[in-house]
Design goal:
This protein has seven helices and nine strands, in the order ααβαββαβαβββαββα. It is globular and about 45 Å long. Helix content is 38%, strand content 22%.
Length: 213
Protein backbone atom coordinates (compact mmCIF):
# COMPACT_ATOMS: atom_id res chain seq x y z
CA UNK A 1 0.00 0.00 0.00
CA UNK A 2 2.83 2.38 0.92
CA UNK A 3 4.64 1.52 -2.33
CA UNK A 4 1.47 2.27 -4.30
CA UNK A 5 1.02 5.67 -2.64
CA UNK A 6 4.67 6.61 -3.24
CA UNK A 7 4.45 5.46 -6.83
CA UNK A 8 1.36 7.57 -7.44
CA UNK A 9 3.14 10.58 -5.98
CA UNK A 10 6.12 9.96 -8.26
CA UNK A 11 3.81 9.68 -11.24
CA UNK A 12 2.07 12.96 -10.40
CA UNK A 13 5.33 14.85 -9.93
CA UNK A 14 6.86 13.53 -13.13
CA UNK A 15 3.78 14.12 -15.21
CA UNK A 16 3.62 17.67 -13.89
CA UNK A 17 7.31 18.29 -14.65
CA UNK A 18 6.97 18.10 -18.43
CA UNK A 19 5.18 20.30 -20.92
CA UNK A 20 2.54 18.13 -22.59
CA UNK A 21 -1.09 18.71 -23.48
CA UNK A 22 -2.85 18.72 -20.09
CA UNK A 23 -5.77 16.54 -21.16
CA UNK A 24 -3.54 13.83 -22.63
CA UNK A 25 -1.28 14.05 -19.59
CA UNK A 26 -4.11 13.52 -17.11
CA UNK A 27 -5.72 10.72 -19.13
CA UNK A 28 -2.47 8.84 -19.49
CA UNK A 29 -1.53 9.35 -15.84
CA UNK A 30 -4.88 7.91 -14.78
CA UNK A 31 -4.39 4.91 -17.06
CA UNK A 32 -0.93 4.13 -15.66
CA UNK A 33 -2.11 4.52 -12.10
CA UNK A 34 -4.95 2.11 -12.83
CA UNK A 35 -2.47 -0.47 -14.20
CA UNK A 36 -0.46 -0.14 -10.99
CA UNK A 37 -3.47 -0.27 -8.68
CA UNK A 38 -5.07 -3.24 -10.43
CA UNK A 39 -1.85 -5.25 -10.26
CA UNK A 40 -2.64 -6.95 -13.55
CA UNK A 41 0.06 -8.50 -15.67
CA UNK A 42 1.58 -6.43 -18.43
CA UNK A 43 -0.04 -6.90 -21.87
CA UNK A 44 1.63 -9.32 -24.27
CA UNK A 45 4.11 -7.13 -26.12
CA UNK A 46 5.28 -8.40 -29.48
CA UNK A 47 6.16 -7.14 -32.94
CA UNK A 48 9.12 -6.77 -35.26
CA UNK A 49 12.47 -6.44 -33.49
CA UNK A 50 15.28 -4.35 -34.94
CA UNK A 51 18.85 -4.14 -33.61
CA UNK A 52 20.70 -1.15 -34.98
CA UNK A 53 24.16 -1.34 -36.54
CA UNK A 54 25.59 2.12 -37.21
CA UNK A 55 27.93 0.69 -39.85
CA UNK A 56 24.97 -0.24 -42.05
CA UNK A 57 23.33 2.42 -44.22
CA UNK A 58 20.05 1.30 -45.75
CA UNK A 59 19.53 2.13 -49.42
CA UNK A 60 16.28 0.26 -49.87
CA UNK A 61 13.33 -0.58 -47.63
CA UNK A 62 13.85 -4.24 -48.49
CA UNK A 63 17.32 -4.10 -46.91
CA UNK A 64 15.81 -2.80 -43.69
CA UNK A 65 13.05 -5.40 -43.65
CA UNK A 66 15.66 -8.19 -43.83
CA UNK A 67 17.00 -7.05 -40.45
CA UNK A 68 13.64 -7.48 -38.70
CA UNK A 69 12.67 -10.55 -36.66
CA UNK A 70 9.42 -11.61 -35.00
CA UNK A 71 9.77 -11.11 -31.25
CA UNK A 72 7.81 -11.21 -27.98
CA UNK A 73 9.20 -9.67 -24.78
CA UNK A 74 9.68 -12.10 -21.91
CA UNK A 75 8.88 -10.31 -18.62
CA UNK A 76 9.34 -13.34 -16.33
CA UNK A 77 11.77 -12.63 -13.46
CA UNK A 78 13.23 -9.64 -15.29
CA UNK A 79 13.11 -5.94 -14.54
CA UNK A 80 12.13 -4.26 -17.80
CA UNK A 81 12.13 -0.69 -19.07
CA UNK A 82 9.83 0.14 -21.98
CA UNK A 83 10.17 3.51 -23.69
CA UNK A 84 7.46 4.42 -26.19
CA UNK A 85 8.68 6.96 -28.73
CA UNK A 86 8.33 8.25 -32.29
CA UNK A 87 10.96 9.71 -34.59
CA UNK A 88 9.22 13.07 -35.07
CA UNK A 89 9.13 13.76 -31.34
CA UNK A 90 12.02 15.98 -30.21
CA UNK A 91 12.02 14.72 -26.62
CA UNK A 92 12.25 11.13 -27.82
CA UNK A 93 15.45 12.00 -29.69
CA UNK A 94 16.91 13.55 -26.55
CA UNK A 95 15.89 10.64 -24.32
CA UNK A 96 17.15 7.72 -26.42
CA UNK A 97 20.88 8.33 -25.74
CA UNK A 98 20.19 8.31 -21.99
CA UNK A 99 18.95 4.74 -22.32
CA UNK A 100 22.45 3.75 -23.41
CA UNK A 101 23.89 5.01 -20.10
CA UNK A 102 21.21 3.15 -18.15
CA UNK A 103 21.91 -0.04 -20.11
CA UNK A 104 25.62 0.18 -19.26
CA UNK A 105 24.99 0.85 -15.56
CA UNK A 106 22.27 -1.76 -15.04
CA UNK A 107 23.31 -4.92 -16.84
CA UNK A 108 20.53 -6.98 -15.23
CA UNK A 109 17.76 -4.74 -16.64
CA UNK A 110 16.32 -5.36 -20.10
CA UNK A 111 15.40 -2.26 -22.09
CA UNK A 112 13.27 -1.95 -25.22
CA UNK A 113 12.32 1.14 -27.16
CA UNK A 114 8.79 0.67 -28.48
CA UNK A 115 7.63 2.31 -31.68
CA UNK A 116 4.08 1.96 -33.02
CA UNK A 117 3.81 5.07 -35.19
CA UNK A 118 6.65 5.00 -37.73
CA UNK A 119 6.61 1.50 -39.17
CA UNK A 120 4.23 2.36 -42.04
CA UNK A 121 6.60 5.10 -43.25
CA UNK A 122 9.65 2.91 -43.77
CA UNK A 123 11.41 5.39 -46.05
CA UNK A 124 11.25 8.04 -43.35
CA UNK A 125 12.25 5.48 -40.77
CA UNK A 126 15.40 4.30 -42.55
CA UNK A 127 16.39 7.94 -43.17
CA UNK A 128 16.16 8.48 -39.41
CA UNK A 129 18.17 5.34 -38.64
CA UNK A 130 20.83 6.23 -41.22
CA UNK A 131 21.36 9.65 -39.65
CA UNK A 132 20.65 9.01 -35.97
CA UNK A 133 24.20 8.26 -34.87
CA UNK A 134 25.48 11.60 -36.20
CA UNK A 135 22.59 13.82 -35.15
CA UNK A 136 22.93 15.84 -31.96
CA UNK A 137 19.67 16.79 -30.25
CA UNK A 138 19.76 19.29 -27.38
CA UNK A 139 17.23 21.12 -25.29
CA UNK A 140 18.22 24.36 -23.53
CA UNK A 141 16.17 24.72 -20.35
CA UNK A 142 17.07 28.40 -19.91
CA UNK A 143 15.90 29.51 -23.35
CA UNK A 144 13.29 26.76 -23.84
CA UNK A 145 14.81 26.10 -27.25
CA UNK A 146 15.33 22.79 -29.04
CA UNK A 147 18.34 22.23 -31.27
CA UNK A 148 19.03 19.51 -33.80
CA UNK A 149 22.18 19.41 -35.88
CA UNK A 150 23.75 16.86 -38.20
CA UNK A 151 27.49 16.61 -37.70
CA UNK A 152 29.65 13.81 -39.10
CA UNK A 153 32.14 14.32 -36.26
CA UNK A 154 29.46 13.68 -33.66
CA UNK A 155 28.70 10.06 -32.80
CA UNK A 156 26.33 8.37 -30.39
CA UNK A 157 25.33 4.69 -30.37
CA UNK A 158 21.90 3.17 -30.67
CA UNK A 159 22.18 -0.30 -29.18
CA UNK A 160 18.81 -0.45 -27.42
CA UNK A 161 16.60 -2.85 -29.43
CA UNK A 162 13.65 -1.24 -31.18
CA UNK A 163 10.40 -3.20 -31.13
CA UNK A 164 7.95 -2.08 -33.79
CA UNK A 165 4.54 -3.01 -32.45
CA UNK A 166 0.96 -2.85 -33.79
CA UNK A 167 -1.17 0.14 -32.82
CA UNK A 168 -3.16 -2.02 -30.39
CA UNK A 169 -0.08 -2.44 -28.16
CA UNK A 170 0.14 1.31 -27.69
CA UNK A 171 -3.57 1.40 -26.83
CA UNK A 172 -3.22 -1.43 -24.30
CA UNK A 173 -0.63 0.64 -22.44
CA UNK A 174 -2.73 3.80 -22.76
CA UNK A 175 0.01 5.66 -24.63
CA UNK A 176 -1.10 9.05 -25.94
CA UNK A 177 2.07 11.17 -25.59
CA UNK A 178 5.75 10.64 -26.29
CA UNK A 179 8.13 9.66 -24.95
CA UNK A 180 6.61 7.50 -22.22
CA UNK A 181 8.73 5.35 -19.91
CA UNK A 182 7.21 2.35 -18.14
CA UNK A 183 9.11 0.26 -15.58
CA UNK A 184 7.95 -3.35 -15.18
CA UNK A 185 8.91 -5.40 -12.12
CA UNK A 186 10.05 -9.04 -12.02
CA UNK A 187 6.45 -10.20 -11.61
CA UNK A 188 5.50 -8.66 -14.95
CA UNK A 189 3.50 -5.81 -13.41
CA UNK A 190 3.76 -2.05 -13.99
CA UNK A 191 5.83 -0.57 -11.16
CA UNK A 192 5.88 3.09 -12.20
CA UNK A 193 5.97 5.31 -15.27
CA UNK A 194 6.72 8.77 -16.59
CA UNK A 195 5.67 10.86 -19.57
CA UNK A 196 8.16 13.15 -21.31
CA UNK A 197 11.80 13.94 -20.66
CA UNK A 198 13.34 16.13 -18.00
CA UNK A 199 16.90 16.98 -16.91
CA UNK A 200 16.91 14.52 -13.99
CA UNK A 201 15.65 11.57 -16.04
CA UNK A 202 18.64 9.31 -15.39
CA UNK A 203 18.65 10.12 -11.68
CA UNK A 204 14.94 9.30 -11.44
CA UNK A 205 15.20 5.97 -13.22
CA UNK A 206 18.33 5.01 -11.25
CA UNK A 207 16.44 5.56 -8.00
CA UNK A 208 13.53 3.47 -9.30
CA UNK A 209 15.82 0.60 -10.36
CA UNK A 210 17.80 0.68 -7.11
CA UNK A 211 14.50 0.33 -5.24
CA UNK A 212 13.53 -2.70 -7.30
CA UNK A 213 16.66 -4.78 -6.62
Amino acid sequence: MIKLIITKIILFILFSAVSINAQLEQRQMNFLQKLIADGTNIPITSGKLYKHNHKIKFKEVADFEKKLTDFKINFNNKITILVFWERSDRYSKILLPHLEHIKNNYKYVQIYSINSNDFNDKNGLIAFLNNYNNTECLYDLETNQYYEEYNKKYFKPLTIPILFTPEKIKQQYGIEAFPTTIVVDKKGKVYTGMVGFFAEYEKWISEVLDGLK
